[in-house]
Amino acid sequence: ANAAILVYDITSEDSFRDMNSWVDELRKNMTEDLIIHVVGNKLDLASTKRAIPISRAEEYVVNALGQECSVHEVSAKDDDGIEDLFLQITRKLVERKQEIEMIKRQNAENAITLQQLEDERMMQAQAASNSS
Predict the structure, then answer these.
(1) Is the separation of the CB atoms in 64 and 93 below 8 Å?
(2) Contact status, residue 18 vs residue 52, Cβ threshold 8 Å
(3) Rounded distance, CA 97 to CA 74, Å?
(4) Which of 62, 52, 48 is nearest to 7 (CA)?
(5) Can you tell me whether residue 75 is helix, strand or coil?
(6) Of 1, 34, 111, 117, whose CA is between 20 and 30 Å from 100?
(7) How far is CA 44 from CA 51, 81, 97, in A?
(8) Is 67:35 a contact under the CB 8 Å cutoff?
């Protein structure tokens, strides 16, 4: 997987606490470049039943997953924030792919340069042995 979405219910303390086990599972199995988004669902109930303030979720994410991990709140019921969430994940995936391609190009260029230096060194060594 290149991305993971961890979802908790903003009206449920238990749901939020359960994220710890999912974070532990991700840590065991994820690669360093996994894009993780933490999502608080049921935003439509925020005004009456919110149990988890977004600031608490953001603090948890920074401590558990680092600065590069994002927190979003959405309402799957009202389709609020879902498209934005997936657009952000897609944007990060495209940026990551571009970074990887740039690194591959740089590595290929460095390999060519190293090969050219090695070839030149061998030619100099042959020229030196021929003139001896």
Answers:
(1) no
(2) no
(3) 27
(4) 52
(5) strand
(6) 117
(7) 13, 11, 34
(8) no
List the structure tokens of 107. Answer: 């590595």
State the chain's maximal CA–CA distance in angstroms: 91
CB 89 within 8 A of CB 3: yes
Token code pair at residue 52: 């988890």
Comparing CA positions, the residue from 47, 84, 65 lying closest to residue 57 is 65
The span from the CA of 36 to the CA of 76, in Å, is 19
Nearest Cα to Cα of residue 37 among 78, 77, 80, 81: 81
Mean pLDDT by runs of 10 across the 132 residues of the chain is 91 94 85 86 97 95 87 95 94 88 81 77 82 69
Q: Please state whether the predicted TM-score (pTM) of the whole model is above 0.70.
A: yes
